[in-house]
Sequence to fold (625 residues):
Amino acid sequence: MLLGEGKMGITIEKVSKNFGEYKAINNVYLEIPSGDFTALLGPSGSGKTTLLRMIAGLENLDSGRILFNDTDYTNKAVKERRVGFVFQHYALFKHMSVFDNIAFGLKVKPRHLRPSKEEIKEKVYDLLKFIQLEHLAERYPSQVSGGQKQRIALARALAVEPDVLLLDEPFGALDAKVRQELRHWLREIHEKLKITTIFVTHDQEEALEMADTIVVMNEGKVVQTGTPEEVYRRPVNEFVYRFLGRVNEVNGRYIRPHEVSLKRAPLGESFPAKVVHVHFIGSTVRIQLTRLDEDILFEAELNEEKYREIGPIAKGEFVYAQFTKLVDFDFQQKVKPLPQKESVL
Amino acid sequence: MNKIKSPYKINRLNFNFEAFRKGGLIGVALAFLALFIVVPLIAVFTEAFSKGAELYFASLMDPDARSAIKLTLLVAAIAVPLNTIFGVIAAYAIAKFQFKGKNFLITLIDIPFAVSPVIAGLVFVLLFGSQGFLGPFLEANNIKIVFAVPGLILATVFVTFPFVVRELIPVMQEQGTDEEQAGRILGANGWQMFFRITLPNIKWGLLYGIILCNARAMGEFGAVSVVSGHIRGLTNTIPLHVEILYNEYQFSAAFAVASILAMLAIVTLFLKSVVEWKTK
Fold:
């Protein structure tokens, strides 16, 4: 309905960019297949937003190339790239109605390409219907909620039928419940339109939940690329492991809290620990404990079933804990190199 | 019980003291305002009409007065648009781009506020006067700047040029560049971006700057006085004409012409309030 044959893969080839002395992007190579839903995931300052802005043409590169379907787009003007961009704070035009915001990209087209007024109106109303905000057409951005602004920004980006959709921290400014809804909604839109989509996030949960491919970035480099399952189950290094979830560190080795097993009685290599705090977070129970033998703080997570098995645990109680699956990155890399997919390190 | 009661008492005391302080401060401010602004304003109009409405209108219809009014309008009609265009460009550059020497440029823009207008006028005399730096060249080409209309325009442009820029820089900085970038990605060219995104966002600030710039352009005395040469009917603006009339003991006529400027001030204040109210 909305988009043409927007099949567009993107290749980023040895791209670097410095801001003064600071290496914002450091020799990045990345291939994003056509129709993919990709998350650029990393902490702040990892270069993910800079990379996204480079793809849009809002930022120049110092070296390297950016290819759209094998065509060099490195020096192509922003408006010739046919990208849709959703800004972190939406950047809606404050002085225009919702309708005019969405119509903007159509209205500024050169005369010989510009659709007629009726066509523009029809298209904008199609998009408004699509984002379920027809009733807000005449409102101004200051009169709609954050989640609605987000959807309007997306409709505005889609109006010009982009080949690629870029989103900068799309849900960063929204409250938790709206964020959850919009995640599903955006995913559905992608299923419908199949447009190559890249979004930037620092929220690992968001990336794991939404993306087909996760690109983990740190300090201007791509650390790992893979499906959510790959990066979560087979992280290439400590950074990725730590970034993708909660972690206990045990003498240079790691274990996730939900892999810690707790028992009432000693068993195997278990050790005694004292319960410091118990949090109930929805269906999981997070327990903070201190090792009695080494006086180290660690965390365990139990799902409802496991928690019922062991019975109610209170602050100050003593239990036995066992670290069964400690991850050792030095060891793994020496002994059994993980099968990696196009990751550059 | 005591513990609950005592803070209540203190609060009551505080409240009374606050009310007293508030009333006192407002009273002082109003008295000051009345003495220095309202009284003189009333004085201008009473003096202007002291010898009857007939003389009042006769003073305004006097050929010299009319030429002064025309010249003032002409000078403002050239200086204000020039400073508007310059102001928008300079504010855009300063607010939306990073470049070396930006702070220096901001300082330069402030010079007309910092320098006495008389000195500004003298600078133009020294530059373009017959004894001045460019004087011989201008004379050879028969171009008159000082003691002629171009000099008045130059001096006025100089004195009033910070108004629009100063007003726009904070407005544009607050806007940021996000909306323009969004426009660029959606395919807008430079002109479309300026007229459809930038300008609508700054229009009230711009109008505010233009109103202030215009008020000053029409009311400027010092710099204009130095470059004018006071040629009646040719290089006298309204403020200069008022001075001449006053020096010739034509008080009613002087105040009659001055009342035009006073009315301009009132209109300016009214427009300013409207714009402020529009911007919220």
